[in-house]
Amino acid sequence: MELFWLAIAIVWYILILTSIYFVRFGDGLGALIAGILAWGTLLLWILGNAYIVFGYPIIVQEPGVDETWRDMIGIVIATCIILSSHNIFHKIRLHS
Known about the structure:
Blueprint: H1 2-24, H2 28-48, H3 50-54, H4 65-95
Helix pairs in contact: 1-2, 2-4
C-alpha cells in the first residue's frame, strides 16, 4: 500500500512541475493541469475529513487533531489554487 501512495506522490509532483512549465511559457494547458490537480487534492482532503460531518471516516482511520487541522489548512490552500488556476487559464486565453 505504501508503494501505491509513493507512486501517487511521484505522479502528483510530476504534474505540478509540468503545470509550472506550461504556465511559464503562457500555455493554458498548465493552468488546466493545475486546476485538475487542485480539484483532485481538494476531493481527497474533503474525503479525509468526512468523519467530522458524517461521524465515521471514509478513506482512513479517524485521524488525530493535528492531522485534522493540517487537512483543513490544505483544503483552504487547494481552494486558493483552484481559484488561481481558473483566473490564470482565462488570462492566458484572453491574451493569446
